Amino acid sequence: MKQFISAHDVKDINAIVEKALLYKADPFKDKTIGVNKRIGCLFLNPSMRTRLSTQIAAQNLGMEAIVFNVGSEGWSLEFEEGAIMNGSTVEHVKDAAPIMGNYFDILAIRTFPTLKSREEDYSEQYIQQFIKYAGIPIVSLESATLHPLQSLTDVITIKETFRETRRPKIVLTWAPHVKPLPQCVANSFAQWINAWGEAEFVITHPNGYELAEQFTNGANIVHDQNEALKEADYIYVKNWSAYQDYGQVLSTDPSWMLTNDKLKLTNNAKVMHCLPVRRNVELSDEILDGPNSIITREASNRVWAAQAVLNEILRSN
Ligand code: CP
Q1: Over the stretch 50-101, which tens digit does the pLDDT of each residue have?
Q2: What is the CATH number of domain 7-146+302-315?
Q3: How many CA atoms lie within 13 A of 270 on its CB side?
Q4: Where are the domains of the chain?
Q5: Is the ipTM of this complex over 0.90?
Q6: DSSP assignment of 29-44, as one string?
């Protein structure tokens, strides 16, 4: 594996899930593969789970992990080609990325979208510039449009908890939120579940919240949430801002928040969320604290997803 920025970078999703679950059973079985190797984890935006799980994963493989909060502690980076840098940016990615390429063996980056220009965000300009100029493998810690380590974790969590021989019914549901959030987690979840291809996949959201078809093609889109939830085995809850009316909050309708009453429509569905979550806005206390929530297991699995990806990169570079 040369880079990890989307589901397309993985040849065999089931194989990498198996690798992750082997690490869960025996975290230190490859504890020397990364000795004398260094990963730089660059955060242009905040994080808890991604930051900690990636460091733990790297250390389990014997790697040194160095975290740099570029967004709050580094020079303000410029990404535009040919920019006349007479404004607030101090250093061009063309100059910074090759240096990081010399300091590290793998570079992992979190770069959120601006939610101002859809064209700019969906070009993935920031992470693409690091790929172009760093000269070493790049791992996405969540980019402008995708969150692949989260989605790999989500497939791992579904595979390890589903006990039936049939295909699970998985429902991705929009949920209300007070702020405009990126589409990354929803896009990425849709991309991975479609690429995995072993589930009945339904997406439900209010009108106006359609995601980019490049990610959702293959899913059944249903605008009636109660209809979508019928016989679901897994409900993936997430808010996102509008893709068409880019970055806008079109609804805060509280009736879209998942409750125990809605859960009765399902096949005793397990409930997932990437976290962080706004309690009693995006998801109710009764769901988060109830027996159907598997969010802690899901977040814990972030370590094994990251470890499997780092192993793949270390083995092929
Ligand atoms: N789910 C997730 O990426 O969590 P953090 O933003 O805390 O890393």
Answers
A1: 999 999 999 999 999 999 999 899 999 999 999 999 999 999 999 999 999 9
A2: 3.40.50.1370
A3: 18
A4: 7-146+302-315, 150-299
A5: yes
A6: TTTTTTTT-EEEEEES
Judge whether 7-146+302-315 and 150-299 match in fold: yes
Q: Which atom of ligand 1 is nearest to the CA of 147?
A: 3
Q: Kindly state the tokens that stand for 31.
A: 């504890």
* Three-class DSSP category at 7: helix
For 31-190, list the strands marked E by DSSP.
38-43, 64-68, 77-78, 91-92, 106-110, 138-140, 169-174
Domain with residues 150-299, CATH architecture: 3-Layer(aba) Sandwich (3.40)
Enumerate the known binding-site residues.
47-50, 75, 110, 142, 147-150, 177, 238, 274-275, 278, 302
Q: Enter the pTM of the model.
A: 0.98
Q: Are strands 234-238 and 270-272 parallel, antiparallel or unpaired?
A: parallel
Q: Which two tokens stand for residue 297?
A: 């297991």
Binding residues for carbamoyl phosphate, as ranges, are: 47-50, 75, 110, 147-150, 274-275, 302
In whole angstroms, give the CA distance from residue 280 to residue 12.
Answer: 38
Q: Which residues line ligand 1 (CB under 6 A)?
A: 47-51, 142, 150, 274-276
Q: How far, in Å, is the centroid of ligand 1 from the Cα of 165?
A: 31
